[in-house]
């Protein structure tokens, strides 16, 4: 039920309903209250992306930072490249974008590479 | 006035204590010298009498007849107006003050108490307090003084003078720290003075004191005050006058309902109830609103004996005459009942009603049927099963209530099992769309976390109503006494009853039945003492039956009772006759006996010496096994109470069966309770006994799968259990098949993001021999794929997930069909779709999604193959060792265990 609530809120927020951003964030956090750990970085990444799309860059960057910290702690690195991208875009930080690109290449996450500006990609990936 | 020397003063005291009554000289002599009078005792007594006469009647002529100390043949009499004696005046003022307080005139009551206390000078009867004949009276007066001081402070508090009485209350509690009523009042005074934390500190000090000094928990008054302070619910003085020191207990036994079988409406419901007109009117309004289409929950709360059940019974009787169905569920007096017992009684009754229609035959309701379940599946958990059951119950209530409304009474909710509470919480918001009123009764519940959260959740509902019952006022007490005795009591007697019982109707009824004189007699101090006296009056054979009944904790069939007592059922029936005559028990149904009130059971049980109690539990369990009259849960409970008599193995055996039975009935909390107790017991031996370790491993895995649903996927609670299970992997013997355990623990580790642990367990699975189904090998590859995905090693992830897909192709479709929707292994396509998507392989990812959707369709051929469980032919539970834990000799018990790795 909690996951369903999160997905519903997130889909609405990502679709443009800014009023649902906070609810999506809260629903996402609620999933982990009983102690679940896995997928947390994925949820945070999704919420950060929704904030970024809504133009709330500072919050997006902060959420991505929080997710990177969790990723480091748990070893859950599947979203690490995308989190770097979000921070890079939100903060206009080319270093973060380059780090994201490097990680995506290492993980063979070509989908993420496609989201990055071409000029930041390693030469062999363009 | 000089009254002479010490012995002469003592003589005056002895005569004053028997004012206006003849007192024998022989007794006076004995009393003056504590049974060892001198030879010249009688002559010396005459000297003292003469001395007294000189002091008290100075105008009397020498050798003239005394008019104050009057001489009789072989004795004397002290004559005076009672009001001339301070002790008598004091008692009258205190009685008057108590009556005023009970009537709500707190200010006048306080004045009256003060006037009485002002009469005191020094210690009571100090001149003779060391004499055996005087000591009890001196002690009584001293106690009465304390009561008066406490009453005075209570009255001051009730008069809204909390700040003024606070210093005196503090002094009083400091001097008498174990007087809980005073401590409770101090808490309320502090709270009203805006000092909530001080109030809580006072409670804590009292709690610690009771625990350290006497090993006791705080009594009901103190706990009630604590709850009020914590909940910011301390009533304003105008609304509530705190009762006198002794308060408590349940409905007047004469008016309590007997249930004709589980779920029936009460058959002995009284038509009227003293002093509860307002409450009945409010419940009537709630019922009218509910049957009008705005269903709701009402809660009647109050101390044991205060009349909750009687109130519900009167309402039921009135409702039944209008044609509205009424169904009751009652909790046990003591001990363990089958899973969902509270609702089971209700649902069985509802299903039998014609109004239920198709809703009665809903399959998910089969768990409420009597006897063990011969379900097609085994006892493994199904994440959706609980909701299907809850929905079916909601539909059933909706259907029955649809025509003429419905009243469901859930009596004694404080003793309900946790699954019954959960179901109530689920139903509560759904009632608004029905025509049903669910009326619950409960004692104070501040020490039960489950009940606290249940009531809190009910209270959040739009239509929730709470009714707090307090003691009866003087007028209602008089009515109650008159209806019980046929005689209108004197005001003095009523005031005394109010003071002594707090207006508790059950207490009053039992006092009257005990033959005590409320004005002049020595009254038992508490309702439990009163009940104890009533029980002690029974002949021994009758008492033995009641002892057994208290051990059973609820209704008991005569046949079971006879089997335990080793006597023919007819003879047992005869033995029970005095208990019926004394209104201590009632017929619960044909051949079934129950206590008329839970307090009878509680006191009878508490009075049993522990060894006899344990022996009765053991005998009851053994008889239950022989006759089939007890459920697995009851057998587990009774053997558990007899562990000291060598029944540990029986306890474990039946606890495992009970856990499986509860799981089948989706009573997961109940199952967890059994499993927790077994785990604690086995844990002591697992390090030295591979057999114990094997059973404990299965138990811990069963717990983990339940906790995943009841607490949460990947929850801390589940993780703690899994950690222990992983320890046990190294303790079991080599013959144990660990593959299912590796699988289950691997999934749980993935949920906790313990990727290293998950990877290790998965690699052991991959290298293990397959079990022939193909699932084990697929599971290992799947888990490695999951680890690869989460850790960002996408190439590895795709390789392992592809291997898992390949292995799944070898699995029998029927077996796969039983996995759909339950086993995360079927998420293998989903995970590979995620991995492929991230790798930019859109088309193959879409193929995986399609495959994930198709798999359930391909495998919907359901198997009818029997699954082993502990039930034998005929449906009775005979092989008490669950196959989950023994016969498969498997660490995880069942290769189909459902755990639920998150997949999104």
Compact description:
Chain A is mainly alpha-helical and 126 residues long. Chain A has helices at residues 2-14, 21-30, 40-53, 57-74, 80-91, 94-107, 110-113.
Describe it.
Chain A has 126 residues and is mainly α. Chain A has one domain (2-125): Serine Threonine Protein Phosphatase 5, Tetratricopeptide repeat, CATH 1.25.40. The mean pLDDT of chain A is 90. Chain A starts with a helix and ends in a 13-residue tail after the last helix. Chain A has helices at 2-14, 21-30, 40-53, 57-74, 80-91, 94-107, 110-113. Chain A is globular, with a radius of gyration of 14 Å. Helices cover 67% and strands 0% of the residues of chain A. In chain B, α15 links the parallel β6 and β7. Among the domains of chain B are: 6-80, Winged helix-like DNA-binding domain superfamily/Winged helix DNA-binding domain (Arc Repressor Mutant, subunit A), CATH 1.10.10; 256-468, Rossmann fold (3-Layer(aba) Sandwich); 534-608, Arc Repressor Mutant, subunit A (Orthogonal Bundle), CATH 1.10.10; 696-904, Serine Threonine Protein Phosphatase 5, Tetratricopeptide repeat, CATH 1.25.40. Mean pLDDT of chain B is 81; it is low at 238-269, 375-379, 859-883 and 887-904. Chain B starts with 5 loop residues before the first helix and ends in a 46-residue tail after the last helix. Chain B contains 37 helices and eleven strands. Chain B has 904 residues and is mainly alpha-helical. Chain A binds chain B through residues 3, 33-40, 74-78, 80-81, 103, 107-114, and chain B through 711-719, 750-753, 755-756, 789-795, 837-840, 902, 904.
Second CATH tier, the architecture of chain A = Alpha Horseshoe
* Number of helices in the DSSP assignment of chain A: 7
- In DSSP terms (H or I, runs of 4 or more residues), the helix count of chain B works out at 37
CATH hierarchy class name of the domain at 256-468 in chain B: Alpha Beta
Name the quaternary structure: heterodimer
Sequence stretches where pLDDT stays below 50 over 5 or more residues of chain A: none
CATH topology of the domain at 256-468 in chain B: Rossmann fold
Radius of gyration of chain B: 35 Å
Could you tell me the CATH topology label of chain A: Serine Threonine Protein Phosphatase 5, Tetratricopeptide repeat
Q: Class by helix and strand content of chain B?
A: mainly alpha
According to DSSP, the number of beta strands of chain A is 0
């Amino acid at each position: 039920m909690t996951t369903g609530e999160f997905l519903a809120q997130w889909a609405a927020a990502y679709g443009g309903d800014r009023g649902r951003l906070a609810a999506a964030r809260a629903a996402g956090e609620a999933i982990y209250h009983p102690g679940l750990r896995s997928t947390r970085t994925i949820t945070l990444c999704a919420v950060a992306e929704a904030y970024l799309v809504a133009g709330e860059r500072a919050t997006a960057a902060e959420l991505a930072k929080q997710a990177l910290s969790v990723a480091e702690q748990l070893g859950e690195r599947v979203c690490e490249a995308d989190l770097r991208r979000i921070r890079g875009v939100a903060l206009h930080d080319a270093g973060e974008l380059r780090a994201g690109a490097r990680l995506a290449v290492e993980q063979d996450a070509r989908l993420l590479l496609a989201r990055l500006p071409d000029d930041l990609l390693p030469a062999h990936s363009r | 006035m000089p009254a002479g020397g010490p012995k002469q003063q003592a003589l005056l005291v002895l005569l004053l204590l028997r004012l206006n009554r003849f007192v024998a000289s022989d007794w006076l002599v004995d009393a003056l010298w504590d049974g060892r009078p001198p030879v010249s005792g009688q002559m010396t007594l005459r000297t003292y009498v003469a001395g007294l006469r000189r002091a008290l009647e100075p105008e009397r002529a020498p050798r003239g007849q005394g008019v104050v100390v009057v001489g009789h043949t072989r004795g004397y009499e002290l004559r005076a107006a009672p009001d001339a004696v301070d002790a008598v005046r004091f008692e009258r003022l205190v009685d008057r003050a108590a009556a005023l307080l009970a009537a709500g005139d707190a200010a006048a009551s306080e004045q009256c108490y003060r006037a009485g206390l002002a009469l005191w000078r020094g210690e009571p009867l100090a001149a003779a307090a060391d004499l055996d004949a005087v000591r009890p009276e001196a002690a009584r007066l001293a106690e009465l003084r304390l009561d008066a001081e406490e009453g005075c402070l209570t009255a001051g508090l009730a008069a809204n003078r909390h700040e003024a009485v606070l210093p005196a209350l503090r002094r009083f509690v400091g001097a008498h720290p174990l007087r809980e009523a005073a401590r409770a009042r101090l808490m309320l005074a502090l709270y009203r003075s805006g000092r909530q934390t001080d109030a809580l500190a006072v409670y804590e000090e009292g709690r610690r004191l009771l625990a350290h000094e006497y090993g006791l928990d705080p009594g009901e008054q103190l706990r009630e005050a604590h709850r009020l302070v914590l909940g910011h619910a301390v009533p304003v003085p105008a609304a509530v006058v705190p009762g006198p020191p002794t308060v408590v207990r349940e409905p007047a036994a004469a008016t309590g309902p007997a249930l004709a079988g589980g779920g029936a409406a009460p058959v002995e419901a009284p038509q009227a109830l003293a002093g509860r007109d307002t409450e009945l009117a409010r419940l009537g309004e709630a019922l009218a609103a509910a049957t009008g289409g705005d269903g709701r929950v009402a809660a009647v709360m109050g101390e044991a004996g205060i009349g909750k059940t009687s109130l519900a019974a009167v309402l039921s009787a009135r409702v039944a005459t209008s044609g509205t169905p009424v169904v009751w569920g009652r909790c046990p007096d003591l001990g363990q009942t089958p899973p969902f017992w509270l609702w089971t009684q209700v649902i069985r009754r509802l299903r039998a009603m014609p109004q239920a229609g198709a809703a009665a035959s809903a399959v998910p309701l089969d768990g409420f049927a009597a006897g063990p379940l011969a379900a097609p599946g085994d006892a493994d958990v199904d994440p959706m099963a609980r909701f299907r059951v809850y929905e079916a119950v909601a539909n059933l209530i909706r259907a029955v209530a649809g025509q003429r409304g419905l009243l469901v009474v859930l009596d004694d909710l404080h003793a309900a099992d946790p699954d019954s509470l959960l179901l109530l919480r689920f139903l509560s918001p759904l009632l608004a769309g029905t025509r049903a009123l669910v009326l619950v009764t409960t004692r104070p519940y501040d020490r039960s976390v489950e009940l606290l959260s249940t009531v809190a959740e009910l209270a959040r509902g739009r239509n929730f109503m709470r009714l707090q019952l307090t003691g009866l006022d003087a007028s209602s007490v008089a009515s109650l006494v008159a209806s019980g005795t046929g005689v209108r009591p004197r005001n003095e007697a009523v005031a005394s009853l109010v003071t002594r019982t707090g207006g508790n109707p059950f207490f009053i009824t039992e006092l009257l039945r005990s033959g005590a004189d409320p004005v002049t007699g020595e009254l038992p101090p508490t309702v439990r003492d009163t009940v104890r006296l009533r029980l002690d009056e029974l002949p021994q054979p009758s008492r033995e039956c009641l002892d057994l009944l208290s051990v059973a904790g609820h209704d008991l069939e005569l046949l079971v009772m006879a089997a335990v007592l080793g006597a023919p059922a007819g003879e047992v029936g005869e033995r029970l006759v005095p208990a019926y005559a004394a209104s201590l028990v009632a017929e619960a149904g044909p051949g079934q006996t129950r206590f008329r009130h839970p307090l009878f059971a509680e006191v009878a049980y508490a009075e049993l010496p522990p060894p006899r109690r344990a022996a009765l539990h053991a005998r009851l369990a053994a008889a239950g096994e022989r006759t089939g009259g007890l459920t697995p849960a009851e057998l587990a409970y009774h053997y558990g109470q007899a562990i000291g008599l060598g029944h540990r193995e029986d306890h474990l055996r039946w606890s495992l069966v009970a856990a499986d039975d509860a799981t089948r009935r989706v009573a997961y909390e109940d199952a967890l309770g059994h499993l927790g107790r077994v785990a604690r017991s086995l844990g002591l031996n697992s390090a030295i006994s591979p057999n114990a370790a094997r059973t404990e491993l299965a138990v811990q895995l069963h717990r983990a799968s339940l906790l995943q649903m009841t607490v949460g996927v990947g929850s801390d609670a589940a993780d703690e259990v899994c950690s222990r299970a992983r320890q046990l992997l190294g303790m079991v013997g080599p013959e144990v098949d660990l593959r299912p355990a590796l699988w289950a623990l691997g999934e749980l580790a993935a949920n906790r993001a313990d990727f290293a642990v998950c990877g290790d367990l998965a690699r052991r699975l991959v290298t293990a021999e397959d079990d022939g189904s193909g699932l084990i090998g697929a599971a290992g590859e799947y888990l490695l794929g999951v680890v690869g995905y989460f850790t960002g090693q996408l190439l590895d992830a795709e390789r392992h997930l592809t291997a898992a897909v390949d292995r799944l192709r070898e699995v029998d479709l029927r077996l796969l069909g039983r996995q759909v929707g339950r086993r995360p292994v079927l998420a293998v396509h989903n995970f590979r779709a995620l991995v492929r998507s991230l790798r930019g392989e859109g088309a193959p990812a879409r193929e995986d999604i399609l495959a994930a959707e198709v798999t359930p369709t391909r495998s919907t051929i359901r198997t009818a193959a029997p699954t082993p469980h502990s039930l034998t032919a005929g449906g009775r539970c005979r092989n008490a060792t669950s196959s989950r834990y023994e016969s498969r000799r498997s660490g995880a018990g069942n290769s189909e265990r459902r755990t639920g790795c998150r997949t999104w």
